[in-house]
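I hope you will forgive my troubling you with a question about protein structure. Could you please explain, in whatever detail you think fit, how the C-alpha cells follow from the sequence? Thank you for your consideration; the sequence and its C-alpha cells are set out here.
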Amino acid sequence: QVQLVESGGGLVQPGGSLRLSCAASGSIFSINSMGWYRQAPGAQRELVAQIFTRGGMTIYADSVKGRFTISRDNAKTTVYLQMNGLKPEDTAVYYCKVRSVLDTDYWGKGTLVTVSS
C-alpha cells in the first residue's frame, strides 16, 4: 500500500504564495515521477507540474510557467510545489500523483487552494 499525504492548501489573496507538500510512504517499488495536478469546479483534472526521478527533468503547464516551481527532497519521496503570483484562476483542488517505474499511479486525496480577495 502507498500513502500520499498532501498539505499546504488554503485561502490566499491574488498575488500571494502557497507551498504544497506531498510525502509518499509505503510500498513504492521505485518512483519514476512525482507531480501535481489540479481540478477546478466543472473542469477536467489537468497537469500542473511534474518532476522525474532520473535527471530531475521538470514539466510545467503553460499557465503556471514562471510562477510555480516543483521540487523534491533528497530522499526523493517528498515533492513540493511553490506557487507564487497566484491568480483566481489557480483556484482548484490540487492532487499529488506518484508514478512508479512499473507505471502504477498513486493519487493523494487532494488539497484545496482558493485564490480570492
In short: Residues 15 and 67 are 10 Å apart (CA to CA). The radius of gyration is 14 Å.
